[in-house]
User: Which sequence fits this backbone?
């Protein structure tokens, strides 16, 4: 079953980002082929919700990391191969009957570009298949291949297709004759094109594994462990956001007895960054990818929904508050269906007045807390809501990001502490910037 999420969550966590902007996807995209980049995008689009599948993918990537595996093919092969296989016009098939004097003359003067492109594609495909066979022999001699063995076996089975023997008995390199090209064209582009395409998908996935393993090594990311038992636990040690130059790490532990994290803190204290950090780590973990942390162990969820940068839905006539309500309703519907989900709400009900926001935050958090198989991270400026919940419920973990005052200047540690924050420094920051004095004097401050 696929991991459930939506565009709002992908945007909040910057999974794909905006065109030309850095994203979580771009961190891992070291693919050597266009097909590899497309496979990586597919994996990012469809995280896993099965512990066995998650751990299996992690073990495969770790297998390549431990061996410092490089991509064993020339990248330029694949452009020629894809162009060659993408030519589905049956009139382009090479046949012995078409090897006329006229064609030979065009070849001699270098004007037969169509044939040259086909020949290049065939030569690239044969070279790739030969290198793959050599690489498979190396992998099968490796006693630690276990995690990757099913894919190696699948590729080897294709390579052993009846009639493919000439591909591997032909000496590597060297120019193919027209007759050889015609024979291989019939074999690979027409008789067994689906097998060739399946093989390419295995290789593109290999490209992803090798690329992600390289990222894990360079950035010192760790591989999380998905637990099999039916529970609700997250043990994340020293997690940090992978897009920050000087990130501050934090540790969070979640159990069914503390399935709600209630986060408070002043503006600029780092609440949104913390929420995104946890969200990104869990998203990558459900992909079976390495995460920016010292260690991670987690119970698998059915999906994730975040509300961090929620915009007004002007085209539908929604105010910010109503957009929040619709968002909470969507989460409630998932919970009603029995889904085990991870939910992040930044500044719940910020789009309404303080009284309604207080009452709604308390009521919704109480209802969330009853769903012990799901996890909720809720931030708010309304400390009174936290104080009320603290008196009523025992399965809420109250944490805050503190602000230290040094000479009337706010200093942020970005490090979680237990409790509820009473920090309210909005007017102090306004006064420090001299805004009221500017307005009173009519002088613009540079």
Assistant:
């Amino acid at each position: 079953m696929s991991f459930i999420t939506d565009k709002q969550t992908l945007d909040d966590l910057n999974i794909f980002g905006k065109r030309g902007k850095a994203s979580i996807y771009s961190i891992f995209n070291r693919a050597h082929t266009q097909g590899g980049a497309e496979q990586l995008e597919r994996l990012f689009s469809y995280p896993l919700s099965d512990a066995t599948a998650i751990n299996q993918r992690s073990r495969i990537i770790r297998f390549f990391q431990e061996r410092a595996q490089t991509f064993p093919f020339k990248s330029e092969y694949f452009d020629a191969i894809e162009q060659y296989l993408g030519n589905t016009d049956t009139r382009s098939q090479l046949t012995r009957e078409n090897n006329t004097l006229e064609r030979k003359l065009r070849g001699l003067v270098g004007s037969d570009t169509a044939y040259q492109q086909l020949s290049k594609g065939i030569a690239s495909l044969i070279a790739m298949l030969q290198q793959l066979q050599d690489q498979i022999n190396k992998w099968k001699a490796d006693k630690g291949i276990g995690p990757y063995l099913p894919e190696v076996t699948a590729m080897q089975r294709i390579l052993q297709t009846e009639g493919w023997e000439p591909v591997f008995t032909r000496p590597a390199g060297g120019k193919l004759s027209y007759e050889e090209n015609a024979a291989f064209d019939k074999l690979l582009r027409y008789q067994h094109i689906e097998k060739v395409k399946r093989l390419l998908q295995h290789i593109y996935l290999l490209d992803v594994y090798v690329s992600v393993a390289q990222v894990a090594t360079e950035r010192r990311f760790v591989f999380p462990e998905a637990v099999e038992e039916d529970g609700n636990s997250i043990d994340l040690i020293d997690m940090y956001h992978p897009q920050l130059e000087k990130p501050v790490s934090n540790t969070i532990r979640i159990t069914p007895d503390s399935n709600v994290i209630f986060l408070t803190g002043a503006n600029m204290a780092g609440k949104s960054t913390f929420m995104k950090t946890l969200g990104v780590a869990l998203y990558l973990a459900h992909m079976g990818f390495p995460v920016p942390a010292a260690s991670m162990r987690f119970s698998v969820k059915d999906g994730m929904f975040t509300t961090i940068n929620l915009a007004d839905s002007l085209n539908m006539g929604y105010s910010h508050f109503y957009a929040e309500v619709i968002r909470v309703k969507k989460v409630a519907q998932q919970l009603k269906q029995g889904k085990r989900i991870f939910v992040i709400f930044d500044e719940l009900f910020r789009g309404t007045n303080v009284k309604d926001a207080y009452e709604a935050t308390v009521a919704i958090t109480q209802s969330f807390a009853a769903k012990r198989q799901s996890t909720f991270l809720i931030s708010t400026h309304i400390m009174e809501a936290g104080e009320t919940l603290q008196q009523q419920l025992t399965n809420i973990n109250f944490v805050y990001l503190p602000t230290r005052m040094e000479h009337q200047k706010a200093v942020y540690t970005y490090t979680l502490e237990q409790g509820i924050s009473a920090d309210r420094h909005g007017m102090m920051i306004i006064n420090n910037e001299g805004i009221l004095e500017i307005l009173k004097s009519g002088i613009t401050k540079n």
Summary: The two ends are 56 Å apart (CA to CA). Confidence is low (pLDDT under 50) at residues 100-111. The first strand starts at residue 225 and ends at 227. The CA atoms of residues 431 and 437 lie 8 Å apart.
